[in-house]
Structures are given as C-alpha cells and as structure tokens.
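Co-fold these.
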Amino acid sequence: MYDLRELTEAVRTFNRDRDWEQFHDAKSLLLALVGEVGEVAELLQWQPAATVREDVKAGRLHTRLAEELADVLLYLVMLADETGVDLGPAAAVKLAATAQRYPASKFRGQAPERQ
Amino acid sequence: MYDLRELTEAVRTFNRDRDWEQFHDAKSLLLALVGEVGEVAELLQWQPAATVREDVKAGRLHTRLAEELADVLLYLVMLADETGVDLGPAAAVKLAATAQRYPASKFRGQAPERQ
Amino acid sequence: MYDLRELTEAVRTFNRDRDWEQFHDAKSLLLALVGEVGEVAELLQWQPAATVREDVKAGRLHTRLAEELADVLLYLVMLADETGVDLGPAAAVKLAATAQRYPASKFRGQAPERQ
Amino acid sequence: MYDLRELTEAVRTFNRDRDWEQFHDAKSLLLALVGEVGEVAELLQWQPAATVREDVKAGRLHTRLAEELADVLLYLVMLADETGVDLGPAAAVKLAATAQRYPASKFRGQAPERQ
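Predicted complex below.
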C-alpha cells in the first residue's frame, strides 16, 4: 500500500471500527508519534554510526526497524488526517520549496546550516 | 504526490543533486526527524486540547503544521530508504497485525493500554 | 540526590565502572534521551488532559512515570557532561533570560507565542 | 543553581508570577520538552559523530547547546513538579536499580541491548 490516500483510508476504517477516533486529538496523536520515534531511537542509539547501515540491512534489527518506522508513519497519517493536512501534496510542496532555498549549484556537498 | 515510491524517488534525486547522501547515516536522519517532530510539538504544545481541532483547521497554524508534518514525512522517507525499509508495505503489514491484536469486537471504545 | 554535580559524579562512576563511556558520543546519548522521552509519551498519550493530574498522582502510572522521568534526567546529565555543559548554572541563566524576555507585568496569563 | 529543589522552586515562582500554571498540564509540558529536545537534535544532527565532541566544546555550538539543554531541564523539572515526581531521588533510585541490573563484572565494555 504505497498510496497515502489509501493508507489514510485504511487507518480511518481501523479506528472507526474500534471507535478510537475519540482518543485521537492532535496532542495525543503527536505524543503517540513521539513514543514510536522513541522506539526507533532505542533500536539505533548504541549502533556505531560507521556500521549501522550494514547492521540494519541484515537480520533482526531490520525487521524491528521496519515495524517501528511503520508505526511512525501510521501515527503521522492519523495526525495529518486529524488536522486536515494532505500529507502527500504537503511533502511535494515542501520539497520544491527546499530545492529552491538550497540550489544544487550552491550547496553541493555542504550540509545545510540549521538556523 | 501521494505515492511513497514516487516520493522516495523525488527525495533521492534531491539529495543526489546536492551530494547530501554523505550526511545521511541512519542516526543523523533520525535526529533530523526528531528535530522536525519537535517543531510540530512547538506548534501544538500550548493549544488547549479542546479547541486544537478548530484552531488548526483555520488560519496560520494550519499552514505551518502542513510544512512541519511534511518535513517529518520527508525525513521518515529518507530514513526508511537509508535503512532499506519499504515504508508502504511495512505500514500495511503493521496495520493488519495491529488489527489482529486488537479485535474490534473486544476493544471497541477502549484505549489500548500500552505495556 | 538533589545536587546535579553529585548526580553527574554518580553517573560518571557508573559508566566508568562498566567502561561504557566509549558508547557515549553526543548523538548516541541524545538518541537514548529521545528513547526515554518516548517512554514518557507512551505513558501519557491516551490520558485525558482533564484528568491526567489525578491519574498520575495515584497508583501505578506515578511509579512508572517517576522511573521514566528519572531516565530522561540521567541521559540529560550524561549528554551535558559529554558536551561540557554545566547544567545547573545553564538552567539558572536561561531562566533569568526568559524572565527578562517575558516580563510578568506584560505576559501574565498569556501563553507565550512560539516563533 | 545545582540543587533540583531550588531549581524547582525558582521555576514555580517564575510561572506563578506569570500565571502560567494554567497551561501546564502534563501533556502540554511533555510536548514543550519534546520541542526543546528537537532543538538539541537540530544542533547535533549533521555533526560528524567522530568530531562532535571537539566541535561542541569550542565556539558557538557550545553556547547554543547549553541553552537548549537548559530548556530541556527546565521543562523536565516542570513536568516532574506537575506530576508529583521528586526528580533527584527518582534518579538516584533508578541509577541504583540499573547498577544492579547490569553488574559491572558482567557488562564491562558491552553496550546493553535494548529490548
């Protein structure tokens, strides 16, 4: 299921079936997302930066990481739906704006300074 | 752009054009995602839970929230791509597993206990 | 143990005894802190905003919350120590600066706008 | 100001003077803490793991990091106060429990697996 609208629809059905929308105000959903991001962090925190790519692509860490990243996406989809944000177009617009702000010709190979 | 594969491809091109993949180890991308989640939190933190839905759907907060949720998605897509996770199917699998774990007949109207 | 210097010293000893300083670069410690913040979020996410104070002050949630907030503090102390930040004075300086930025006479009863 | 009780008292006075306790339910304070953790993440995300220690200890990054870690501590103190958690003793108890769980003799030099 690659389509964000389909995913949104599936998540809506899931929640409607359980009458769980009542718990899903924006702040609670954001905290749930924070919880899932925390689980990703727990998987990666002690991995050496130099070998994390290889470690992740093989074995158990990969499976668990897939589950946790999925959870992050699911809560992100719920939070966007709750707040009326159309996530796909919003990402496309943001990517285009960022491309303009950091022209490839000027920023090639340079990490963008935050702030 | 609703298709997660298309979005992944667009983000790859964006980063390749700037030679930014070199900065994108999993731990750095996760911290970038944490930074964006933090910006969503700053938008919502003092909103009264009771009125956040209305406040978000009108005016300035909505625009900014769309931008920040977009950023979360963009870094999530990069992190999944870096770690070889296929985000769409992973979310579908997780949703199906969660549906089994919490049957609608048993959990209707009950917030799932964590832990 | 209320003194942040004492706590820092105790944490140093704990890590030195286990030879764990080697894992404690700033980015890894920050991810560990994110993981603990995520656990706090999982405890609070579905609590109704209106009753969380009472729910927390009684029973099991309180014990678990104390443990998770303790973990956040412990990693914060490690991160500060690793990056050479003297946490107590830094907090005092920041509080004084914030007090100047938001004079009580002008901001009484008004949530500070972020941004 | 190294004493967590003194810091708690200073933060209470700060908030009472501005009548800001009304905004400080646990979920809102946690989101504020998440926002500050996000700012720390933005400072560290693109720093190469190998040189972050040196980069942090010199110059501008250090000053900003001190400010952001201070903010994390301030919100942590507020969240603990709001939820009736005595942060210093809780940290001491947790450190002692962790020391028992991971005896130095057995875990020396081994990163603890997060489950």
